Amino acid sequence: MKNSPALIAVDWGTTSFRAYLLDAGGAVLDRVEAGRGVQSVEKGAHEKLLVELVQPWRSDGAGPPILLSGMIGSRQGWVEAPYVRAPAGLREVAAAIVTIDTETLGEIGIAPGVLVDGVGLGPDVMRGEETQIFGALAASGRAEGLFVLPGTHSKWARVEQGRIVSFATYMTGEAFAALREHTILARLMRAGEADAEGFAAGVSAAEKLAAPGDMLHAMFMTRTLGLFERLAPEQLSEYLSGLLIGAEILAASRGGGTATVIGSPALARRYREAGRLLGLSLETAPDGCVALGQWALFQAWRRSPD
Amino acid sequence: MKNSPALIAVDWGTTSFRAYLLDAGGAVLDRVEAGRGVQSVEKGAHEKLLVELVQPWRSDGAGPPILLSGMIGSRQGWVEAPYVRAPAGLREVAAAIVTIDTETLGEIGIAPGVLVDGVGLGPDVMRGEETQIFGALAASGRAEGLFVLPGTHSKWARVEQGRIVSFATYMTGEAFAALREHTILARLMRAGEADAEGFAAGVSAAEKLAAPGDMLHAMFMTRTLGLFERLAPEQLSEYLSGLLIGAEILAASRGGGTATVIGSPALARRYREAGRLLGLSLETAPDGCVALGQWALFQAWRRSPD
Q1: Which residue of B has its CA nearest to A247?
Q2: What was the pLDDT predicted at A3?
Q3: Rounded mean pLDDT of chain A?
Q4: Contacts with A22 (C-beta within 8 Å, 6 or more apart), sequence order
């Protein structure tokens, strides 16, 4: 019965809802996406919305088990699933899945996030990314590696023996947007095609920085390089992107080794290109890490002693 | 006739207009401030506005010479006074003052800004800050030093033999505002009294950063330190301020030596406190650097061969 539905796996994040119907081999039978992230759902409204969104998979009023991961388990979500402390692998995360009894959907699992604390500048957290990393590990058959999930808040995680041992968040995407849209840098910028030359100039600037505070100087160069026409108005946004992504990669990959990028094809391409310019090797994880990770987590949950 | 008016000196910046009536010894007889910065004045409207604002000093329809400095000499200002290339002291800047003939005010001088190019990441520019630095030099009788003009775009300049030999702009103030107001960091922040503990935590974080890209990680700590209640909601904005100012000071003061802060008392206090925490010496320039610098520049202009 490999093709009969075995799991409804949901990655329910801050801004998006992605659900997968998986068969008993973990293969995706069907999927649903909706712009109904945690931030758009009021307390008390989660169950009704979930019923609506996965209704096609429960036509007879019943259905396979349901496992949710991502920000849905945060204080701002449905029910809080407290963070598991790193090092954390499938076993530790599965053991901390919180079960809730619902009226219409029966028992539902909500996965916790992962916490790293006591090292570095302060505590750091992820919710949902751990599941994608488990998916990338499952896809490659590996149990070690450095993984990057680029975006608004990029996560870099190091995995040893199948467990996330450390990680750090970089505000790259959000800092880029705030600087591009809400500072003087916006004035000279003009929208245009993605520009390889502007991006490379930014990555090259990142490589030349000596002190952390030089970032604040290099950002301003987005303006003066435009003022003095060293870069065209269409290239300035790319310069800023290259500067921030280049600096992120240089800082986060210090431990060495090839990093695996888990993300959208466009963003993964941008990170790989910056890596190439910096002489660092980045490879792209296969598609489908979310569903693969949810499936692996579900199996570990089933084996879990609780 | 030391007390008779000898110069109307105007610092006409992006957001503010500050004019001084100086006597023949350079002392301030009177002053006018207005929120009529360059960005609020249309092309062609500068003369009329200037007449209005300095009218009290020209009651008989005539008056002392007028010298303007700041963004008024930029492409967005009245008439462009092209940048002078560093190294630039009073002599070089005075020689590049642009004279315009006005209908109602006669001949007016517009000071140029200073450009540094061909070193570092790209060209860098200042307009108006050079005059304040000349004022700080005049006030102290010194001809050397490291000067910082903190703010939206902090400038750090090194002076040798009375000339600005190099400088760099740090987007500290504007990056702080963009991050505080337009990112997730805003959510946990609560307004409060300036908090020494939060500020010190930020400066301490700046000191621990190893790579430039670590800035993007440390910024995110503003959120997690709040989430885990290591800092109170009222301390988070101060943490971010300490982080950025600390990083700026560490990067910009690498050449060594005591830096002199030219700025508002509140901002100067903040920079001195960060310097103290970092074991670096910062001192505050006396008040009145703007008028002192304009006076020194005026005298050099008078001596100028053109």
Answers
A1: B213
A2: 79
A3: 94
A4: A5, A6, A7, A8, A9, A28, A29, A291, A294, A295, A298
Cβ(B76)–Cβ(B38) under 8 Å? Answer: yes
Residue B12's pLDDT is 96
In chain A, the N- to C-terminal Cα span, in Å, equals: 27
Instruction: Detail the DSSP E strand segments found in A213-273.
Output: 259-261
User: Residue B3 carries which DSSP code?
Assistant: T
Q: In angstroms, rounded to a whole number, what is the distance separating the alpha carbons of residues A240 and A109?
A: 41
What single-letter amino acid sits at B101? D
Would you place residue A2 in the very low, low, confident or very high pLDDT band (cuts 50, 70, 90)?
Answer: low
| Interface test mutation site (partner B, options A124, A215, A235, max chain B beta carbons within 10 A) | A215
Q: What is the pLDDT of residues A166-222, one digit of tens each?
A: 999 999 999 999 999 999 999 899 988 778 999 999 999 999 999 999 999 999 999
Distance CA(A41)–CA(B305), nearest Å, equals 73
Distance from CA of B279 to the nearest CA of A (A): 17
Q: Give the amino acid at A91.
A: R
pLDDT at A193: 79
Unique residue bearing structure tokens 């885990």: B228
Chain A CB within 8 Å of residue B31 CB:
no
Partner-chain contact B123 A227, CB within 8 Å: yes
Residue A109: phi, psi to the nearest 5? -100, 135
A175: nearest CA partner in chain B: B179
pTM over 0.90: yes
From B123, B205, B215, residue closest to A228, measured CB to CB? B123
Token reading at A62: 């019943």
Nearest to B178 among A183, A218, A248 (CB): A183
For residue A112, say if its preceding peptide bond is cis, omega within 30 degrees of 0: no
Q: What is the ipTM of this complex?
A: 0.94
Residue A111: pLDDT over 70: yes
What is the DSSP secondary structure assignment for residue B97, as one 8-state letter? P
